[in-house]
Design brief:
- The protein has about 675 residues and is an alpha/beta fold.
- The chain is about 25% helix and about 20% strand.
- It has a nine-stranded mixed beta sheet.
- Helix 11 packs across helix 12.
């Protein structure tokens, strides 16, 4: 157990309680109330004591108690999202005018020091050829491997916490005794399109071997955790697998190797922020110019992988057994049903792009002054035309063709769209998802945050790559659409809003995987003893329509809404979790999500479980850090779960509140 040392500058040190702590706690509380109040802000930096439990086997021990569960056979496989894997240099690059050079295995993504001090060299190691997706002649980068590649992108005292991705997730696994060889990360080069991942790195062959190795090593199936773009990667893997395994053995392979799939923050219909990045760049929070960020982003083959597309359009897939065959591939063609043309916006709340096109066609924003001035004078004589494009018109290339004469990147993007996506030999990723044929699927995402759903662009008058300027943004929030300037606009807003990155209609598309009868439960996110828990059973669900629960909510409480179906597909379960105010990028660090995942997994492997899903009737503390001191009652809160137990090194009352040694018995309430 790790010991937390007190700050030597603090004079307050709790002493161990006497034999009758209840009679003396009140006295000590009165004498130190003011001092504890002053200490509250000073103690934020103090590390929490982590209780590392023993390795869980068929009978596991937590805090002195025992509960049943066969964790010895389960493995967890993590597929990270976009820009969530470290990239390391695989070249020697001398950077002029800078003391920082790139040597093999040096960190490239993300090394903020080299990004700031040697940006030109850093870009050489990051950018790819937009046509053939090869590395720069002077520098190449490759993804790191192992769990360290996805925990912190830029390790360091300051940069580490700011770039932390899966670190908290791994901590939870360690706290609950998951063995080191049971958690496997499968990092990938997130700059590449799916076909190039296989062609260059044999990524999907390696992923298949990872599942098979985990099964052989652990003796049981794996649990897949995928976040953001990682879900698109996993979807492509399932389609690729159909070409590698005999059709009669495909489902059996999935049943043997995959127990459950947790899809976290999945952009099932794409994200509109992808379109913004293609026109004005995405800096990823780095202090780089937007034009530079645009050059880098548009060189990636994956830049279009999360392009928004219509839920009403399908394509004909032409399969090819091998990626290196010389056959000419037939291109996929969209086939849209009547709803695409009868309804506006391709299922999205509004048009995604509204862009002004100059009435006079000029050379695409030259970089030299004389030609630029001549073109600008010509543009002033004409009235620009505003064009609007929905998701289908972006996914099929109509939008990029419309601005081809005004933007040099359009030709490159059209090539990538046609070659890497519409012409993909395995799957056109820009088509709606069907429910994967897996036994257990949990679709999890955040809701009710202000999320971008549309943009207004106009020519900036500057040379490429800064030739477009964003003039306005359309947001969805609490069932309404409004612009950055505060004006309400018409459209088709959903019942809720997205997670700040992906719109609600894209996140919630997995509700189509639920059957005609759905059980809905809404509970507070925080620990609760059953108050404000609402349950509706056998709610009618029309496939293709959203499920809007008729439940009350308090404006001061954050909720989780569970949609669960275990009846419509024999032997399969489907659940959708909507977590209020959960941010897209930070959801994998949410303690609420990790608590629910832990309880659901523990419930699944328990031999005495009484229901298909873990009960939602009560939520109590599971870890010592979940316990705290209740100053109003002068005792530890949640007396049923927590008790006062001083350990040397504790510096405040709340730190001495710990889970009871018999808390393992309380877990039986979640069966």
């Amino acid at each position: 157990m790790y010991k937390t040392q007190p700050n030597p500058q603090l004079t307050y040190t709790p002493s161990p309680p006497p034999s009758n702590p209840q009679s003396t706690i009140i006295t000590r509380t009165r004498s130190h109330t003011r001092e504890a109040g002053r200490m509250k802000s000073d103690l934020k930096f103090i590390a929490v004591v982590f209780v590392i439990v023993g390795v869980l086997d068929r009978t596991s021990v937590v805090n002195g108690g025992q509960f049943k569960g066969d964790y010895s056979k389960l493995s967890g496989i993590i597929i990270p999202g976009f820009a969530s894997t470290q990239l390391r240099a695989w070249s020697i690059l001398d950077c002029p005018y800078s003391p920082l050079d790139f040597n093999p295995l040096d960190l490239v993504w993300l090394d903020t020091t080299k990004c700031l001090s040697a940006m030109n060299c850093w870009l050489k190691c990051m950018m790819l050829d937009p046509y053939n997706q090869t590395d720069h002649p002077e520098c190449k980068s490759r993804p790191d491997s192992g769990l360290s590649a996805i925990t912190e992108l830029d390790p360091g005292y300051i940069t580490g916490p700011l770039s932390s991705v899966w670190k908290e997730w791994i901590k939870w696994c360690i706290e609950f005794g998951i063995e080191a060889n049971a958690i496997l990360a499968v990092p990938y080069d997130w700059r590449l399109s799916p076909s190039k991942l296989e062609e260059r790195d044999l990524y999907f062959h390696k992923l298949k071997l990872t599942f098979e190795t985990a099964l052989k090593h652990r003796g049981g199936p794996s649990i897949v955790f995928a976040h953001s773009l990682g879900n698109n990667v996993f979807r492509y893997f399932l389609e690729w697998l159909k070409l590698e395994i005999a059709p009669k053995k495909y489902i059996q392979w999935l049943d043997d190797h995959i127990h459950a799939y947790f899809a976290v923050g999945s952009p099932l219909l794409g994200s509109v922020q992808t379109v913004e990045a293609t026109l004005s760049g995405s800096t990823f929070g780095l202090p780089v110019p937007e034009g530079t960020a645009r050059l880098m982003f548009n060189s990636f083959g994956s830049s279009l992988w999360m392009t928004p597309f219509s839920e009403y359009c399908q394509s004909e897939n032409v399969y090819s057994k091998h990626f290196s065959t010389g056959r000419k591939k037939k291109h996929n063609i969209y086939h849209c049903d009547d709803l695409e043309y009868r309804l506006n916006y391709s299922g999205f709340p509004t048009n995604i792009i509204n862009i002004e096109i100059p009435s006079v066609v000029a050379e695409a924003y030259p970089s030299f002054g004389d030609e630029l001035q001549a073109n600008l004078s010509n543009m002033e004589c004409g009235v620009p035309t505003q064009l609007s494009f929905n998701a289908r018109e972006i996914a099929d290339g109509t939008f990029f063709k419309a601005i081809e004469d005004y933007d040099p990147d359009s030709k490159r993007l059209l090539y990538q769209l046609d070659k890497l996506y519409h012409g993909d030999p395995v799957l056109n990723p820009l088509t709606p998802w069907e429910r994967p044929p897996l036994k257990n699927i949990f679709c999890i995402y955040g809701v009710d945050s202000r999320t971008e759903v549309g943009y207004y662009f106009a020519p900036s008058g500057k040379p490429y790559p800064d030739n477009w300027i964003m003039t306005d943004v359309v947001y969805e929030f609490e069932g309404i659409l409004f612009t950055r300037s505060g004006n309400l606009i018409e459209g088709n807003p959903g019942a809720a809003s997205g997670d700040e990155t992906v719109p609600y209609n894209s996140l919630s598309y997995c509700k189509n995987w639920l059957g005609p009868k759905v059980n809905i439960t809404r509970t507070p996110q925080s620990e609760h003893d059953g108050e404000d828990v609402q349950v509706h059973t056998d709610v009618e669900h029309q496939i293709g329509a959203d499920i809007i629960p008729n439940m009350t909510r308090s404006s001061r409480v954050k909720y989780i809404t569970y949609y669960e179906d275990s009846e419509s597909l024999p032997g399969q379960r489907t659940a959708v979790w909507e977590i209020d105010k959960a941010n897209h990028r930070n959801i994998v660090r949410s303690p609420i999500l990790m608590r629910e995942l832990w309880l659901e997994m523990w419930h699944d492997i328990h031999p005495d479980k009484k229901s298909k899903f873990v009960t939602k009737a009560k939520r109590g503390p599971l870890r010592d850090e979940d316990c705290y001191w209740d100053y109003g009652k002068a005792r530890c809160a949640w007396a049923e779960y927590c008790e006062y137990r001083y350990v040397f090194g504790d510096v405040h009352l709340g730190q001495s509140c710990r889970v009871k040694s018999s808390s393992a018995d309380l877990l039986l309430k979640y069966v």
